[in-house]
Amino acid sequence: MKILVPVKRVIDYNVKVRVKADQSGVELSNVKMSMNPFDEIAVEEAIRLKEAGQASEVIVVSIGPQQAQETLRTALAMGADRAILITLEDTDADMEPLGVAKLLKAITEREGPALIIAGKQAIDNDMNATGQMLAALLGWSQATFASDLVLEAESAVVTREIDGGLQTIRVKLPAVVTVDLRLNEPRYASLPNIMKAKKKPLEQIAASDLGVDAAPRLQVTKTAEPNERQAGVIVADTGALVGKLQEMGVL
């Protein structure tokens, strides 16, 4: 059984995001980039399933500029078998979930995996939509926010994190599963595996060659940083608190 894992190159979670001076977007020049943390968990889970003998091949795929090869090489160093990079004509284009889902659908139809494991969302936009859209386009079962995943003969048992606690469901394969933080702890790539990853296959495909219309449907007119949080005020007693709230117009 093949497992396909989409991964995204995002600003490293330790880096403070800065808005461009012209407010046209987020500054990416000379900024440390890394694999989306949720996608890293998805890669780890796919590798564990292969190590357990439940998968024959783990394929990682990314959409973006040439620099995304670094992200794919990281996944290969973790233990993935091969990688696919879908390149864009406009390297500065901000891909939307629907466009990403369409491109992943084309790759899925070509590769024929029985399971797609993806991060529940990317930390740069927090859309939380690509996995659901991909499942809908494919007509596959879906299980989101997975904190536990067990594969059976023709199905997957997934424990989901929901507002009320945990929910366990069984979905038929093929399926799309999006993962949450508590599913596993991703491994660090060892130096020997990093060296081996350089020799693993990494295929490049132009998005235009897939015959997919992934053009953005939305236009960002302005990007701005949130207002700075104002300092709090310490009051002596309840009366002073009520007076302060009246002064602020809350009461």
Compact description:
The protein contains six helices and eleven strands.
Q: Could you give the topology of this structure?
A:
Elements lengths: L1 E5 L2 E3 L21 E3 L1 H15 L5 E7 L4 H11 L3 E6 L9 H15 L3 E5 L10 H9 L2 E11 L3 E8 L2 E8 L2 E5 L11 H7 L4 E5 L31 H11 L3
Parallel strand pairs: 1-4, 1-6, 4-5, 5-11, 6-10, 7-10
Antiparallel strand pairs: 2-3, 7-8, 8-9
Helix pairs in contact: 2-5, 3-4
3D shape: globular
> Treating each run of at least 4 consecutive H or I residues as one helix, how many helices?
6
What is the CATH topology classification name? Rossmann fold
Number of domains: 1
Average of the residue pLDDT scores: 92
Helix content: 25-40%
What structural class results from the helix and strand content?
Answer: alpha/beta
Can you tell me about this structure?
This protein is α/β, with parallel strands linked by helices and 251 residues long. The chain has a single domain (2-220), classed as HUPs (Rossmann fold). It contains six helices and eleven strands. Strands 9-8-7-10-6-1-4-5-11 form a nine-stranded mixed sheet, with helices on both faces. A two-stranded antiparallel sheet has the order 2-3. A hairpin with a 3-residue loop joins strand 7 and strand 8 (155-162). The model has no long low-confidence stretch (mean pLDDT 92).
Index terms:
two-stranded antiparallel sheet, Rossmann fold, 251 residues, alpha/beta, 26% strand, 9-stranded mixed β-sheet
